[in-house]
């Protein structure tokens, strides 16, 4: 009787182990790098690569519009060009420890969806966000210009500060970064 139980358990363990090895061989994880940013979640299955759509779109500064009723995802990549102005001069380098007054100009074109709001934020080298300006819009144009009010900002650290332009496709949607420009802070 004991011999029979041991044989049954060995068979069960071999089946479970064999299934796990087969599953690992059939599905392989893939590390995805988009514009130098590494992410996980990709899979190779039956010779095809599957990637998480939101992660890919985020890396490309694109909007994902999900239509649950039709089970359809649309990726929208508007052209958004950012320019930083200090007075009437364009700038991109600052000195650490100094406070600057500047504004952000965005030129948006090739926008293939309507948007409900825009936001411009600055992120210090440690990832802390300060919103420069946000505004609700009822926009259904394929192109527009947007300029923030002047902001006074102190560059307390050495490193790269990211100024990002965000959009929302509806009031209840999440903010999506669609463009970024860097400011270098040096000693």
TrEMBL record:
Keywords: Signal. InterPro entries: Cu_amine_oxidase-like_N, Mao_N_sf. It holds the Pfam family Cu_amine_oxidN1. Residues 44-117 form the Copper amine oxidase-like N-terminal domain. Residues 1-25 form the signal peptide. This is Copper amine oxidase N-terminal domain-containing protein. It comes from Paenibacillus protaetiae.
């Amino acid at each position: 009787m004991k011999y029979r139980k041991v044989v049954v358990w060995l068979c069960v363990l071999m089946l479970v182990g064999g299934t796990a090895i087969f599953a690992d061989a059939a599905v392989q994880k893939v590390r995805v790098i988009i514009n130098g940013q590494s992410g996980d979640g990709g899979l190779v299955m039956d010779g095809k690569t599957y990637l998480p759509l939101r992660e890919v779109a985020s890396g490309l500064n694109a909007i994902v519009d999900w239509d649950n009723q039709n089970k359809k995802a649309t990726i929208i990549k508007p052209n958004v060009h950012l320019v930083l102005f200090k007075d009437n001069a364009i700038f991109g380098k600052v000195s650490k420890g100094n406070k600057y007054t500047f504004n952000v100009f965005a030129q948006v074109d090739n926008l293939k969806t309507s948007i409900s709001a825009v936001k411009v934020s600055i992120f210090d080298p440690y990832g802390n966000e300060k919103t420069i300006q946000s505004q609700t819009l009822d926009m259904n144009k394929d192109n527009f210009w947007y300029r923030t009010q002047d902001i006074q900002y102190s560059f307390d650290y050495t490193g790269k500060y990211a100024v990002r332009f965000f959009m929302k496709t509806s009031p209840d949607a999440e903010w999506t970064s669609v463009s970024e420009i860097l400011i270098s802070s040096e000693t």
